[in-house]
Amino acid sequence: MRSFDYTKVPTQKITGANGITYAYRDLGNPVGIPLVTLTHLSANLDNWDPEVIDGLAQHQRVITFDYPGVGSSTGKVPTSIQGMAKDAWQFIAALKLTKVNLLGFSMGGMVAQEMLLQQPQTVQRVILAGTGPRGGAGIENVTKISDLALVRALVTFTDIKTTLFFTRTVNGKTSAKQFITRLKRRQQQRDRTISWGAYRRQLSAINRWGRAQPADLSAIRQPVLVINGDHDRMVPTKPNTYDLHQQLANSDLVIYPDAGHGSIFQNGPDFVERANAFLA
């Protein structure tokens, strides 16, 4: 019997043709096209909001995984977003999936865009959250923003996602506290924290991607749902989220008010409802 509870679903492993062993979790309703999720900078399997994953899993099979060199996956973190996309395709091939939907959050949204450019025929629909286009304004500043937030988190003994993902309003602070609590629900078989070296390699890849020449996204014909909060500090909503929406030929745009980089977690129930309707 398949699990619908992300806090209890077991972690599995599979080895791709590239020799990398990927750690992943697989849950939900095994009908239709599977949803493969692509997570953010420094994240492992435990950084997905369990309430969001559970809500999505009620309507489709949901697969989360660790990038190579992160968490419990083997290998080394690529120094390019394009390399991460190729590794993600190796994981999908190992699972013998011939058609997928993608949910890319933050850095994962960057990886999802490159995956679309590399193998468009394998992708049905895509959700891009808290992200922007290659070469987007301010993306090269993620390293500086992350480093400053990390220092603040260490000094104040708080989770770095509290300030990077959420607004500093009463609503944002309350949502941040609730989100961090949800991330701690899983008690068994928790994933390994990313190493410092792997984290810096990911930052290098984002920085390089942010300075690169923009991609031509107009040829992408798949339906895309573009989502962000109106106050994203990591990947500035203006102009990035709007530019991404405009560059794509077939996209819908959702901007949550009083929300930051982690708007899909701050507005979990609404996001799940929108995502399930879109993917259906």
From TrEMBL:
InterPro entries: AB_hydrolase_1, AB_hydrolase_fold, AB_hydrolase_sf
MF annotations from Gene Ontology: hydrolase activity
Annotated AB hydrolase-1 domain residues: 41-267
Classification via Pfam families: Abhydrolase_1 (PF00561)
Protein name, per record: Alpha/beta fold hydrolase
Organism per entry: Lactiplantibacillus dongliensis
Keyword field: Hydrolase
